[in-house]
Amino acid sequence: MTLPSFAHEQALPSLKVTKAFLETLEQYFMKRFVDAELLSLEEMSKALSIKIEDSLGTERVSTIKDMATSRFADSTSNVEIEFDLPYRKDDTRLRIRLRFSKGRLFSTMAINASVPNAREFVLGLRDGLMRMLEPQKTWHWLAHPKAEAWGFAFAVGGWVAYQLFTSTGKESYFLYLAGTFALIWFYLFGMGNLRPYVVFESRASDRSDKIWSWFIGGVATFLLFGTLLTFVRRPLLGF
Prior knowledge:
Elements: E1 5-11, E2 15-17, H1 19-34, H2 41-47, E3 48-54, E4 57-61, E5 78-84, E6 93-101, E7 108-114, H3 118-133, H4 147-166, H5 174-189, H6 191-194, E8 198-200, H7 203-237
Parallel strand pairs: 2-8
Antiparallel strand pairs: 1-7, 3-4, 3-5, 5-6, 6-7
C-alpha cells in the first residue's frame, strides 16, 4: 500500500540568523522526532546536515555545535539546514529543507513527506517551524521589494531622472527632485546591501548596523533642517 504524500514550499520572512538560533532549531527537530521516538539519536545525527556558504567555500556539519566560532564569517551568504529521514521499510519518507539567504528569492522552506495523513503532518510541521522563526524576524524585507514594487520604484525614478535632465537647475524644486532621485537610487541599488534579507551574525553585520544608524541619523537631520524647518521659518521670519 502506497502512503499518501504531500509537498509544500514557501518563502521565508526576513530574519536574523545566529548560532544560538540554529541550536534552537536543532533542539526542535530533536524534540519533534527523537523524543517522540520516531528515530534514534544515532539516526538523528545522520539525518540532519547543515551547510554554510561563504566566499572561501562551503562548510558541512551534522550539528551547529561543530562550528568552531560563535559567529559566522563576514562573507557568509547562505546557510541551509536539511533533514532527511533515514530509510524506512514501510516507505515512510520525510525531507525538510530550510534555506537562509541574503537574497529574498533564495530564502525558502520546503517539506516533502510520505506518511499517513501527509497533508496535516506537513502543514503542522510548517506551522511549528514558522513559530520558531517568529522571534528572529526583521523589517529588512522592506529593503528587498518584490518584482512589481521594484518595477514601480524604477519607473518613478526614471520619471524623476527625466525631470532633472530637462530642468535648468534653477527651479525651486530642483533640490527636492535631486534628493528624491538619490533616495530612490539608494533604495533600489544600495539599501539591500546594507540591510540583507537575512542577516548572519558577524563582525560585518555589526559594522553594517553602525553605518545604517549613521545614515538614518543623516537623513533625519536633512529632513529636519532642510525641509521641515523651511516651512516653519517662512511664516515666522518671512524668508
